[in-house]
Amino acid sequence: MSHSANNQNIPRHVAVIMDGNGRWAKKRLMPRVMGHKRGLDTLEEMCRICSNAGVEYLTVFAFSTENWRRPEDEVSFLMGLFLTALEKKVAKMHANGLRVKVIGDRSHFSPAIQKGIVAAEELTKNNPGLTLTVAADYGGKWDIIQAANALIAEGKTQITESDLSTKLMLAEAPEPDLFIRTGGETRISNFMLWQMAYAEFYFTDVLWPDFNETEIYRAFESFTQRERRFGRTSEQLPIEQQRP
Ligand code: IPE
Ligand code: IPE
Ligand code: MG
User: Fold this and answer.
1) pTM for the complete prediction?
2) Total count of domains within the chain
């Protein structure tokens, strides 16, 4: 099925909680980790679709600070998959002109993963295309704390919103316009807390490995219907933003 962005308001920055991998696999009587493997294919596909649609930033939650609590074998599979993605998928993304970034606390990752992250960011940093940011060992609370600590290290005793914003991960990107969570849960699970202040939320029961072009265009369609008032009244908005 082909889609066109005509008459659709395409968000500049899309943030996604890629949830439902485990349940996708379980439904097929497969080990949970097979869902993660398929989930990586979905991510590649979403990069392509979002690039084509004109999205500038795609930020995905791959591993939360809380996900270390999972069984050891699942965590180690996810780490293996992360390394494979860095070694095998990044070259393709580079060829497609994407910029790849990783946000989160890198210190708990293996030296090989840490090296892979630096190499991926370095290789793709001057690319003109979509910026894919992967949040790994990331937590929204962690992000705010690391920003506050960076300000303290500079000797600040009083801070403003803009001081804090500039120290957050993703400081150089606009805040997310559209937040999508697949997998049926309607919670934020400690993803970007500060940056989500005015994001439009979209929840779907579709499990991440099943998420596809049709489904993301449903999210864009829903986004198009929203009136983003940022505290103002409808009447105050520019005429082109008002709905009939
Ligand atoms: C999301 O899928 C991927 C990660 C958290 C790494 P889940 O693994 O949470 O899948 P469900 O929610 O158990 O189905
Ligand atoms: C959130 O999913 C984190 C990622 C998708 C990486 P979880 O499946 O871990 O979230 P909870 O624990 O159900 O809220
Ligand atoms: Mg889950």
Assistant:
1) 0.95
2) 1
